[in-house]
């Protein structure tokens, strides 16, 4: 199966190419040419299977033979053996028809591990097969960076550079990125916001000379393989709650729109998904867009859910492409509008198509803190602030439809944000034992100016040195 760019001006490529390519050369994002379909029978047959077995089927359908089934199966088994829970992504009930899908049992305590553990193995496999080397550059508001550094540290075929916004991630997140000693990882504190980090990242990819010189590869959710791996837990959660015999709704704490896009993809593949709730903190560009049709970034406010302090939501482009009937010219117009005038309008009938599948809800800081306290007191369940944003939006949605089960994606372990959780609940969540000495480990990172030329020079110098040493 080939993958096409949302902007329609880059060559269509197979899964393995999309895996190594990240951003398409026309600045767009890759999606499969068609969606593999899961019948009701195939969905029902997932019941009782292990997470790894479900992943083999679902990721296998998306990989479509580009990685041999036995190799994929070995990588999937290996990836999910790193999780601390036997169910990998377990469901917990916290109220009437209200469930939490725990995605934080991986090594770095955030949902990113679910995809990143598999992505690293897939990339390593394909690079080794080709005898090639890649320079991975990623932008993070805290969790993608930790997960990527953990997953790629020590691998021979890659050098990893992670840009994070200086002073705008939690201490646990920063330490997870800066205390890994492997020489192939480089944590870069950028003097700016996450949107600056992501803007520079896209700028590096759009500089084709630089991109080719260093064989740039991406691990952000611009990389299609990240989304593909995240589709799995929508299937496993929905099947646990009765799919395909009844629909299940999901509310997703949202920033870059990758996680919720995976839910939309699951629906396109045949899973009976009710509604998909986009939950944001006060950085609410997507809530405003669904309400008014106007996509207009504003300044970013720092919150207790820092991983969602994002205004420019990368994967929304994939939704605009898909929900708009794959009209690449329309996507190009909207994206040009964003660059040239700082905004664009989602016209009808695209806006209505999006509203049919999605609702959106925003939680301010007081609501997030109150939610952590309420869920702790009423259900004895400790939410992290990102999950709490989702819970606020989900509870509102349940008032409109109390019949369809609602699953809130729990995207991080509360111990990643202990100060905010303690302030809201009175409970300070401890780090799991494998991270118990995190605060004592020595840190290593460089501070770099918010300037693409400075980042380019930094990456080039270190990547060249590593390539020289490896040759
Ligand atoms: C803990 C947490 N929750 C939610 C999100 C938002 O997810 P997405 O960017 O896929 O919308 C992120 C960052 O991506 C995150 O790290
Ligand atoms: N919240 C993310 C931001 C990057 O998102 P990605 O899914 O595109 O990698 C983070 O924690 O880094």
From TrEMBL:
According to the UniProt entry, which residues carry N6-(pyridoxal phosphate)lysine?
112
One GO MF term, please?
pyridoxal phosphate binding
Q: What is its EC number?
A: 4.2.3.1
Residue span, Threonine synthase N-terminal domain: 4-80
Ranges of residues in domain Tryptophan synthase beta chain-like PALP? 93-327
Q: Name one GO biological process term.
A: threonine biosynthetic process
Q: Which InterPro entries match?
A: Ser/Thr_deHydtase_PyrdxlP-BS (IPR000634), Thr_synth_N (IPR029144), Thr_synth_N_sf (IPR037158), Thr_synthase-like (IPR004450), Threonine_Synthase (IPR051166), TrpB-like_PALP (IPR001926), TrpB-like_PALP_sf (IPR036052)
Q: Name one Pfam family in it.
A: THR4_C
Pathway assignment reads: Amino-acid biosynthesis; L-threonine biosynthesis; L-threonine from L-aspartate: step 5/5
Per its record, the protein catalyses: O-phospho-L-homoserine + H2O = L-threonine + phosphate
Gene3D superfamilies tied to this protein: 3.40.50.1100, Threonine synthase, N-terminal domain
Q: Name the cofactor(s) required for activity, per the record.
A: pyridoxal 5'-phosphate
Q: Which family does it belong to?
A: Belongs to the threonine synthase family.
NCBIfam families membership = thrC
Question: What name is this protein filed under?
Answer: Threonine synthase
Q: Which organism is it from?
A: Chelatococcus composti
